[in-house]
Amino acid sequence: MGVRDWAKRQPKRATGFVRKVVGGDQIQDGVEYINDLREGLKPRRQGRETFENAVGRLNIREEDLYDAYKFQTFRFFLFLSLSVLALMGAAHFAIQGSFVFLGFLGFIFIGAAQIFNASFRMMQIRYRELLPVKFWTQNPSEWWYKPLPKKSSGQKMASSRKTIGSSSVKKIKKG
Asked: How far is CA 168 from CA 44, 96, 165, 174, in A?
């Protein structure tokens, strides 16, 4: 055992010593664990989830859908009426020259967001389809309340839809 063998072992000893002091093994285990978590969080494209798949996954019954539609209808009309009242209040304070109308305008914007949300959810429940917002914006007739069709008419509606790509969209005749 000469000086040459001793010199070859020194880097290994130093690396081992540093790993023991710094905890290199734990750091390596942590890095592997974080990489596993990162891989698990990546979205996996398994195809587009349908409304029926989501209903089945969430274990939602038909009565739950009708209750949800009633609740969204209530939200729609509640925020619509509150927004109209806030608009009248904002106009009153704006005419008086008070800056209180800015608070009313803020409430109007919040109410408009809630009206959009309720209207969009009602449309998705009516169509029984996870439709994009683009469909909602391109069809102003879908913005307002419509009664929820019964299951039998929903099946009729499904046969009158036009399939585009992986989603089905009802043909709407424009005036």
From this structure: 22, 51, 8, 18
